[in-house]
Amino acid sequence: QVQLVESGGGVVQPGASLRLSCVPSQGTIRSYTMGWFRQAPGKEPEIVAATRWTGGNIYYGTSAKGRFIMSGDNSKNTVNLQMNSLKPEDTAVYYCVASRSRLITSSYPLRDQYEYWGQGTQVTVSS
After folding, report:
1. Does residue 47 register a pLDDT over 90?
2. 52: region left, alpha or beta (phi > 0 left; psi from -120 to 50 alpha)
């Protein structure tokens, strides 16, 4: 079915920035509800950001607010996650996710609402 390919992860120092990208194998990014989850070692996956692309509204998890920005590039059919002021606690595998349904906001943090998950890209923040 649909594959999501993430890129942009790496190892950085605290305070640095990274930009993650995600490209679906079929369909336009705006034909899906799309988002980002992350999973730290020993933890359950948690929502980072998600959007239905309607009205320019983007949902952010608590840890992402004020530091991360999710956006879409229509010309490249690419979803981006700009991560600024990175902290050691941001260390995790980051997953691009998508749903064919137009999810309501209360559903955004629920893992089982997304049919498609990328393979994940590792982000490590360490001094």
Report:
1. yes
2. alpha
